[in-house]
Design a protein that fits this description.
Layout (H helix, E strand, L loop, with lengths): L9 H22 L14 H8 L3 H9 L19 H11 L12 E5 L8 H14 L4 E5 L5 H5 L15 H5 L11 E2 L5 E4 L5 H12 L8 H7 L7 E5 L6 H9 L2 E6 L3 H23 L9 E8 L4 H14 L8 E2 L2 H8 L14 H24 L5 H6 L4
Helix pairs in contact: 5-14, 9-10
The protein binds adenosine-5'-diphosphate and magnesium ion.
Pfam family, one: AAA_31
InterPro entries: AAA_dom, DNA_Partitioning_ATPase, P-loop_NTPase
Organism: Candidatus Methylumidiphilus alinenensis
């Protein structure tokens, strides 16, 4: 008899799995040629550099002539190549313009939280981390999602380059590790350290759940781990998994500030209402165990906003009415530039040239910068040592 369908069993699933990994490898080969290591190709001209370090171009040239800074790198035709971010940070050090918090200020531990996938958490995590690193801050990104989008964007293949011992997993579940230092990975971005993730972290979800009964201190493992490394950073950004489980609870326990990305479509808006129900319930769980602190700020960020969709505009307006000053003023619009950069396993901040058009690129940069400038300000306001300069800048 003729069969009208093709049966699929475990062996076929295994074969599909193998084929998927082979494709990922091919993609990465193409993107990270020639030696499969991701590098930051960014260089900044002297004008931009002067702006970034808060000094004049003359001050830079004088320091170079006086030997206080190395002479600028030239190409074979003796033209200035521009400065790398590492070189710019050296200048900031020399001129005393690094924006680091004082030791007396608390490191900011920021969770880009939403219990849903596809809302832009990892996109915001990576772009905000890179924006802050461009400004000279010391940033640690902790990938808490076993899907490892952020890890991948930082040029690491979670399936091949990482061992289970390289992620949060050993610290969260095995008493052997007394600090999170083992997991800190320097990235190709100056100023950004990553704690990467891979699929094993998914196991942590139910292993933690089975341990937490009778031992609620398991909720605090992540927070305690962050305590062991936080003094080395200004900002620690947590990219949680898209579900309300043990890891998301641990993230809520560890964070001292929250940004909640929300795409303004009707469906997502109702899920945002659900988000606040889930957030309340999660915080009540923590409260029950005496583990509830306060957040230094909580802001909803309208993400993936498409101005061509009237429903988006309507709902974005509604969001402003409902959440008022709980919303960031700037929104992250839906941009082909972000999607295209993503396909190259990049962020918009590291693109060597516009992927679509110069105009789209510039627009995209403008709202990325505007969102991130707002986040940077919120962070600096939590640092008393920054208050005087914030007042001088007229933003406080
Ligand atoms: N502002 C944006 N414009 C265009 N595409 C976006 C934007 N934000 C996110 N995306 C795309 O949406 C998808 C999901 O984003 P991601 O940041 O991975 O979400 P999450 O981490 O919440 O699951 C990705 O393909 C990403 O490139
Ligand atoms: Mg993600």
């Amino acid at each position: 008899m003729m069969s009208y369908f093709e049966e699929i069993g475990l062996d076929e699933i295994r074969e599909i799995e193998d084929r998927s990994y082979a494709i990922i490898e091919k993609l990465r080969d193409r993107v990270f040629e020639p030696d499969r290591t991701k590098r930051l190709g960014l260089r900044f001209n002297i004008g931009t550099t002067a702006e970034m370090i808060g000094r004049t171009t003359t001050a830079i040239r004088d320091a170079e002539k006086a030997g206080r800074l190395p002479l600028p790198s030239l190409d074979e035709r003796k033209r200035r190549l521009g400065y790398t971010l590492d070189e710019i940070n050296e200048m900031r050090k020399l001129f005393g313009t690094l924006p680091w918090r004082k030791e007396t200020d608390d490191p900011l531990i920021l969770a880009i939280q939403n219990f849903k996938g596809g809302v832009g958490k990892s996109t915001v995590t990576c772009h905000t981390a890179q924006y802050l690193a461009l400004k000279g801050y010391r940033v640690c990104v902790i990938d808490c999602d076993s899907q490892a989008t952020t890890t991948t964007l930082f040029g690491i293949n979670p399936d091949l380059d990482l061992d289970d011992k390289d992620t949060l997993y050993p610290y969260l579940l095995h008493g052997g590790e007394t600090s999170l230092h083992y997991a800190l990975l320097k990235t190709y971005w100056p100023g950004i350290t990553l704690i990467p993730s891979n699929l094993t972290l998914y196991n942590a979800e139910y292993e933690l759940a089975s341990k937490v009964h009778g031992n609620p201190s398991m909720f605090s493992r992540l927070r305690e781990g962050i305590d062991t490394i936080k003094n080395e950073f200004d900002v620690i950004i947590l990219d949680p998994p898209p579900a309300l489980g043990m890891i998301s609870l641990s993230v809520l326990r560890a964070a001292n500030a929250l940004i909640i990305p929300v795409p303004p479509s009707t469906v997502d808006f109702s899920s945002t209402a659900h988000f606040f129900t889930m957030l309340r319930e999660a915080l009540e769980v923590l409260e029950k165990f005496g583990m509830l602190g306060k957040y230094k700020f909580l802001k909803v960020l309208a993400s993936k906003v498409n101005d061509n969709k009237s429903a988006h505009t309507e709902i974005a307006n509604m969001m402003h009415m409902v959440y008022e000053n709980r919303m960031l003023d700037s929104k992250l619009k839906d941009s082909a530039e972000i999607d295209n950069a993503n396909a190259q396993l990049m962020t918009v901040y590291e693109l060597p040239s516009p992927q679509t058009s110069r105009e789209t690129y510039n627009r995209c940069m403008a709202y990325l910068n505007s969102v991130n400038r707002e986040i940077e300000l919120l962070i600096r306001k939590t640092w008393p040592s920054h208050h005087e300069s914030l007042r001088k800048e007229g933003v406080m």
